[in-house]
């Protein structure tokens, strides 16, 4: 069930101005929260499988504290339902583990595939894997560690991007991204270098960060800055991804 991906750069330009004028409250962030029901199965090795009411599966690995397990279900609860449904339909499990190598031992000590200050997978607190990087398991998957549970929606947004045919890689998306960046540069709006990386990474991370900011129930200063940087992208994501 894919949303119709239609870019409306013109209407987004208009809405973008409104966004800029009044960043709070953020449209889309005020919807009624629908708390999911969770079903939990504990396994003999200390791991647990927690499935929500739309079928999104969270695999909690041994060693994750009870406190972190509770927090993980909270963070899943505040994901937009449309995101949970899309990830569930795409069969993308969410792994919560202290280290990524607890899930996929192949990644222990292994260098990251891209230039990144974290250098190896051991230092990564959250990730979305398409089949290519997760080849040992041969599946798509998401991962967060207990210190990065608030990155769950960000990683889920990478999942949406992948499952919905990479809207972040379209010419329309790139045009809106470039227009937003130009506006930010011309108006001295501070740029987050993570979001201006060259090639696929800048647009992919922008897709994930803007989605995350739109889905947030309360907006932190970094998320407010992201929306200020990318009003056209924010409008496009709101129009197309049901948040
Ligand atoms: Zn990311």
Question: If you had to describe this structure to a student in words, what would you say it looks like?
Answer:
With 243 residues, this protein is α/β, with parallel strands linked by helices. The chain folds into two domains: 9-29 and 167-240, no CATH class; 38-163, 3-Layer(aba) Sandwich (Glutaredoxin), CATH 3.40.30. The chain contains nine helices and six strands, in the order H-E-E-E-H-H-E-H-E-E-H-H-H-H-H. The chain has helices spanning 9-21, 66-77, 81-89, 100-103, 152-163, 171-186, 199-215, 221-229, 231-240; strands spanning 38-42, 48-52, 57-60, 94-96, 126-129, 141-144. It has a six-stranded mixed beta sheet with strand order 1-2-3-4-6-5, covered by helices on one side. The longest helix has 17 residues, at 199-215. The radius of gyration is 18 Å and the shape is globular. The protein starts with 8 loop residues before the first helix and ends with a helix.
Name some characteristics of this structure:
single chain, 243 residues, alpha/beta, Glutaredoxin, 2 domains, 42% helix, binds zinc ion
């Amino acid at each position: 069930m894919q949303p119709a991906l239609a870019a409306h750069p013109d209407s987004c330009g208009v809405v973008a101005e409104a966004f800029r004028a009044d960043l709070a409250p953020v449209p889309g962030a005020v919807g009624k929260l629908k708390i999911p029901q969770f079903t939990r199965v504990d396994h003999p090795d200390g791991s647990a499988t927690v499935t929500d009411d739309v079928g999104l599966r969270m695999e909690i690995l041994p060693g994750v504290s009870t406190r972190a397990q509770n927090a993980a279900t909270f963070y899943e609860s505040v994901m937009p339902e449309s995101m949970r449904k899309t990830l569930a339909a795409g069969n993308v499990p969410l792994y919560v583990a202290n280290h990524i190598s607890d899930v996929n031992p192949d990644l222990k000590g292994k260098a990251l595939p891209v230039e990144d200050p974290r250098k190896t997978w051991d230092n990564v607190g959250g990730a979305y894997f398409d089949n290519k990087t997760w080849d040992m398991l041969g599946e798509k998957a998401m991962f967060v560690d207990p210190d990065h549970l608030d990155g769950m929606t960000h990683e889920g947004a990478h999942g949406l991007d992948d499952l919905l045919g990479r809207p972040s890689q379209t010419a329309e998306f790139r045009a809106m991204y470039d227009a937003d960046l130009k506006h930010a540069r011309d108006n001295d709006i501070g740029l987050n270098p993570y979001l201006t990386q060259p090639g696929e990474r800048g647009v992919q991370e922008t897709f994930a960060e803007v989605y995350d900011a739109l889905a947030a129930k309360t907006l932190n200063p970094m998320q407010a800055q992201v929306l200020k940087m990318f009003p056209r992208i924010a409008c496009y994501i709101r129009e197309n991804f049901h948040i």
